Structures are given as C-alpha cells and as structure tokens.
Amino acid sequence: DVFDRLNIVYAIGGSKASSVYGVVRFTQDTDITVQPFYPVADKFYDMLKDDFYIGEQAMYQALKTRSSFNIIHFETSFKIDIFIQADNDYEKQMLARSKKINLGDLLEKPLSFVSPEDIILLKLRWYNQDGCVSERQWSDILGVLSVQRKQLDYEYLSRWAVKLGLNELLQRAILQSQT
Q1: Angle, alpha carbons 175-145-92 (nearest 5°)
Q2: Dihedral sign, CA of 96, 69, 28, 103?
Q3: Any alpha helices (H) in the chain, and if so which ranges?
C-alpha cells in the first residue's frame, strides 16, 4: 500500500515470486525491488516508522548507492529486503515486465511480482554468486521452470542469460527441469 500511495514502482521477487510461479515453500522474508524514490523518501519513512523497524540512514544510503536496506515489522518480526533498482538495462526491463497478480481472498488488490522469466534469471544470478551450492535456489529455479514450462518466453530468458553470463546455468536448469 505504501508503494502504491507514493507511486513507487515495485516488484516482489525472491522466494515469494518463485512460490507464486513454481513450488510453494516457506520463507522468512520478502525481497522487493523498487525504482529509486528519493523525492518521497521522507514520506516513505514516516509512513512506515510506527509499524516497522526502518533505519533512516540505511534507507538513504541504499538510495544513494542503489543497494539495499531492510525493514522489519514490529508485530510479526517479518523482514522485507528492499533492493533499489540498479541503473542497468536488465533491472529496468525487469521492473517494466512485472506482473500484477491477485492472490485470491488474501488481499483486496493485486500485487506486483517480477515475471517468471525474471525470477529464474534472478535466482540463477544469486545461485551463481553463491558458488552454485544453494540447493534452495536451484530448487526454486527448477520449480518455476517446471510449472511455467509452456508459458515462458524462452527467447527473453536466453537473451538475458547470455548478457548476464548465466546461459550455461540456464541450459542446465532447463534440461534438469524436463527430467
């Protein structure tokens, strides 16, 4: 609601997105990528500070460096990692391709999620950065590939996998998801 009220473009990623598009799994946080929102940062902070732990300086530092900060809901201790969109073609395209998804009776309005192709690419990037050892990331990738197999834009996936240096991992994941 805060993102929408302040007209901050966002897309939910991470395990929440891979659960929506693939195999559901429990997660203890949510990853959200947002466009830089420096002009409304004070309002953003003021709207959240009573219900969430939010480090004001960490937020401003993340906006300045296009990195990340987190907020934690006081009542539930649920953590949200907020990633400020990097200034590159891939992340701009990723937010532009986000999809509004209605989660049924849980919420009154749809939420913005990264596309299934982009969650695969993001998870491949995280998997690669972690030395290709995270079974959880790999399982999420395979789950989305398996469930979304017929709806995926493979041309988009392949083009960005090559540009991001992830093509070999993508091809391996596609093969493994089909067995």
Answers
A1: 115
A2: negative
A3: 2-5, 14-21, 41-48, 56-65, 89-96, 116-129, 135-147, 154-163, 167-177
Cβ contacts of 87 within 8 Å, gap of 6 or more: 66
pTM of the model: 0.91
Question: In sequence order, what are the residues at sequence separation of 6 or more whose Cβ sits closer than 8 angstroms to the Cβ of residue 65?
Answer: 84
Q: Cα–Cα distance between 159 and 82 in angstroms, integer?
A: 26
Burial class from Cβ neighbours inside 10 Å (0-12, 13-18, 19+) for residue 105 reads: exposed
CB 164 within 8 A of CB 118: no
Tell me the pLDDT tens digit for each residue of 41-73.
999 999 999 999 999 999 999 999 999 999 999
